[in-house]
Amino acid sequence: MRAKKAKKSRAGPAAMTVVVMRLYIADAAPNSVKAIANLEAICKEHLPGAFKLEIVDVLEFPLRALADGVLVTPHLAKLSPSPAAKIIGNLSDRSNVLHALGIKQ
Amino acid sequence: MFGIEQKEAYFLRCHGSMAHPLPKIPTGIGGFDELSRGGLPQHRTTLLKGGPGSGKTVFALQSLVNAVRKRREPGIFVAFEESTSQLIANAASFDWGLAALAKNKLFFLDAKLSPEIVRSGEFDLTGMLAILKAKKEEIGARWIVFDGIDVLLTLLQNPVAEMREIYRIRDWLADNDVNAAIITAKMDGDGSGIVNYGFMQFMVDCVIRFERRLEHGVALHRLEITKYRGSDFIAGEYPVSFGPSGMEVGAPEPAEIRQVASGERVSAGFERLDTMLGGGLFRGSSTLITGVPGTSKTTLAGKFVEAACRRGERTLFVSFDEGADRIARNLTSVGIHLKPHVKSGLLRMYSGRTESVGAEDQLLKLKGLIREHRPRCMVIDPLSAIGKTGGIAAARAVANRFIYLAKDEKITVMVTAINEGDEPETETTDLQISTIADTWIHLSYLIRSGERNRALTIIKSRGTWHSNQVRELVLSNAGPMLADVYTAGGEVLMGTLRWEKEGEERAKTVQRRAEFEHKRGELQTAEADTHARIKALQQDLARQRAELAMYSSDNQARIVSSSDREQELRRIRSADPARKSSSGNSGNRDRKGARDAR
After folding, report:
1. Which of B100, B265, B418, B550 would you label with B125, given CA atoms 20 to 30 Å apart?
2. Would you say residue B190 has pLDDT above 60?
3. pLDDT value, residue B397
4. Does any CB of chain A come closer than 8 Å to the CB of residue B79?
5. Is B417 helix (H, G, I), strand (E, B) or coil?
6. Is residue A95 part of a domain?
């Protein structure tokens, strides 16, 4: 597991809640690589310091992915705050991602 | 993710060695393994295509179930379209025990993407295939099904991506050796719904097309093998039907008819009918009984069944649109008792519905019944019922196939068919089975002298002498029987006319008997009289003889005494000295000598 974790807020706006997410990828598959890059960019811009991301490599942990209901990759799961959301794809469509994550633009 | 060498190796494995017969793996689906000459290509991929509800999923599931049950080969089912709980619930109508198998031997991956999932950009199947690989290794799966791949491909929304993912699946299959892989895709006949259809065709080794269509309001299912790389197969469209054990394909019968003709005779039901048939029906032959409603076709069939059961032969009585119990009860009124044979297990009575059941389904049902009961004799009453719903052409083909099937199984079969109208020239049935049936008995009503009587005619009976006479069929509580023949003016008399004639005959007999008795009495009297007269005459004779005897001795005495007296006289007169009576003796001698000389 390549965990990129805990980029927590140091001195961000107090109202900002921490968004917990998990991204399922397939090693270095092109879409997976793109998804990581896209998600990082989104977080940097919209959730500076207010997110928690775990990256799970499905090739490494397939049965865990199965248990989590993951089918296709990349797959981004927003775990909290509720409502939970699932996004599939390389996250190139930014507005869809922001909407699903509940981030106002 | 796979090296070029691997792909080439896969292609060589798949397409290189054509010289060897292609190894196949049976699906266990009745009829399909015959059609494909062995089943699906082993270690290869098969594509099932067809419209919704055409049976692709059932085919795939049933193959998986059979693999587990018959060869203990676990499998994976990836469902893109239906949720797995839905799938298992739907399959509960089949006796597969799928819910139990799904616990350990079969793995169902619910690959239906939830509508809540948000899409953002391209995705791929890398992750899913990794999951499947892990699962395959975990349960040791030897079969895999991708059900409804079209749903997944549609989600990709991009022909290039579709192509890429198809490649990915193909590579996965090459890498993860399985006994058989099945991909199902919803598409119409020419595959126009799928952009990469051509490539899909290319990537698989076997393509089976499924179809569901309506004919006269009845759903008909068909399948056709459209491609089978490296193998021959039986081309053409074949009917598919669904029973409690799943799907069955109506595979064609072999083109060559290899039935052995038996010389053994079995009773057609009762003695007089057997006599008319020249000794009964041939074992394994087929008999058609035609007639308008009410001409007691069922009774004749029932009698045939009863006779078979009495011989101890397993028998199957199939009736349509009338309950078996009701038929058994009705037959009791004419002295045919079937219930004891049902109880003993010798006789199986099956009653089917014809409403909205296609002819093909009926045939498969019959096949199933024959397999279960293994009868030696069988009745279908009426066979014409199978043509009631659905196309007549299909019903005809089914009727023919049924007769051939019965012949192959060496079952002596009697089928009834209702024909409309009562013209002997138009005694053909809608199903045109009269041409393939060996024996054809026609029942009709003859109306004469204000009565309707049942008449039985044997129109044909192959390979045997048969009576050409029209006979009256009489029903009584002792069963059906054929009445004695009385003809008058070249016509067989029936009903009251026959009864009158019978009465007349009886009266004549009585009269003749009386006349005879009278004559005999007369003769006896005359005889006695003669005897008496003989006796009297004999007495006369005796008396006359006695008289005669008496008379002759008296005469002798008189002669003797008179000659003595003469000699005495001569002696006294001395006229004749001492001659005694020797003269008479010598005279006798002379006469004798003269007779000898003559």
Report:
1. B100
2. no
3. 75
4. no
5. strand
6. yes
